[in-house]
User: What shape does this take?
Amino acid sequence: MSSKNKTKLELIWIGKDKRPKLEPRILLEDPSKSYHASHKVSENDIFDNKLIFGDNLLALKALEQDYAGKVKCVFIDPPYNTGSAFTHYEDGMEHSIWLSLMKDRLEILHSLMSKDGSIWISIDDNEAHYLKVLCDEVFGRNNFVASVIWRKNYAPKSSAKHFSVDHDYILVYAKDEDTWRPNPMPRSDKQNKAYKNPDNDPRGPWRANNLAARNYYSKGMYPITCPSGRVVDGPPHGSYWRYSEEKFRELDADNRIWWGKDGNNVPAPKIFLSEVKQGVVPQTYWDYQEVGHTQESKKEIVDLFGAAVFDTPKPERLMERILTLATNPGDLVLDSFAGSGTTGAVAHKMHRRWIMVELGDHCATHIVPRLKSVIDGEHKGGITDSCKWIGGGGFRYYRLAPSLLEQDRWGRWVISKDYDAAMLAEAICKLEGFTYAPSDTEWWNHGYSTEQDRIYATTQTLSVEQLQALSDEVGEDYSVLVCCSAFRCKADRFPNLTLKKIPKMVLSRCEYGHDDYSLNVENLPMQERPKPDPSQGGLFQDEMFDDNGQG
Assistant: This one.
């Protein structure tokens, strides 16, 4: 089918078009849980990493303004929606709800990715193929890179009802497929083992290549005389020498032809290890021998916490493979389903910057201690030895601020009593698209959007006299958005001031007082299963259709 006539496929499900109006919360640091090394270990130490406790959809929205277009690699390991109850989240819900919740998150993740960034999503057969079509819609089908198969088990499960499932998928998408390229895989010892140096060539180890090739070459038919005097009349039947006679003689003069120890072999060009590409193209099948398996990852967790407190952790070697392909030192990595904290631990050891989000209590009880052990150089498992990690760096621990607005006893929306003046100014800046940067000298300057535009937020009711004084101090150099509870004059009285009332100015922007958009089925509204549609032959409405309504 030509691209002109190609039909666009998309998933249709109940509730797909009901998008939440997310409140862009501010982040509040908890210094008691933040942690930094006591001294710099190297010049590559990174201290501005973020661990965020809270609903991951709200956290992603909170990050969007400051980090849009800056994340080099996103890795997520979302609940697989298998119907199994896990310790730290309920992994099983109505299929259409799972798709809606994933779509909300993927759309913000897409905005956070840099132009040369990529996203890697771990998933199994239960939702992989629906997720693939959903990702085609969000990221663009042309930006699909690969579906990696990770063999996670090394032995069959005899208790399996039908098949013993040995693999998971990792879906890989680029923000821009034309721009993104994976780093080459480092050459393995097995690949380098073929290179020897039997003639002590000063250029180092080499391997013999075949001089003959099957591709037609008009200058590739000529006899060759070996040093022993034996004459090779020509290449084997149906093939040609890959070099012209003149080029062959140049290579021989440069000691780049191997004739065998007695000088009687068919000549073979030497391929030097020092001259070959120092990396290989990644493949889509990853065996547990290369990147680890589930038992290995569970052992890592037991070594850390004394018990297998996480059901489906990922081995550090798997994450190392992903970050090796997708990032370089100093790049920013984001994981919004942090789980046991493997992504941050591995990124830290590999000198990548990282942001992780986790809603469960284990964010403080398990992830924080794990990261502390990494920073102190006390964690000896995983990739610690292979990457020669000895400690250093740090992270800051944040929680999501409460909703800016709350309802009073009469049902009216008012500013939350939990907000002080600084929090209010920062929240209003985020809602209005300003960068929060309070001035040390200008009391009215809480942030900026352009060189001339400033913002001032207060819960006060401002009189004409106060506004006149503010206007006089601002002068003609700036234009200030003034956000206050009320003002006692006409809104357009001062040409350098734009007056708006809080909370009226932000009330319709988003959903306030909604703190949990998590993938925990207990937090989701009940939804009736759609009835079969006779016009679609009895299919439910969460099936896949093309633009013409055909399945």
Remarks:
- The chain has three domains: 36-186+280-400, 189-275, 405-501.
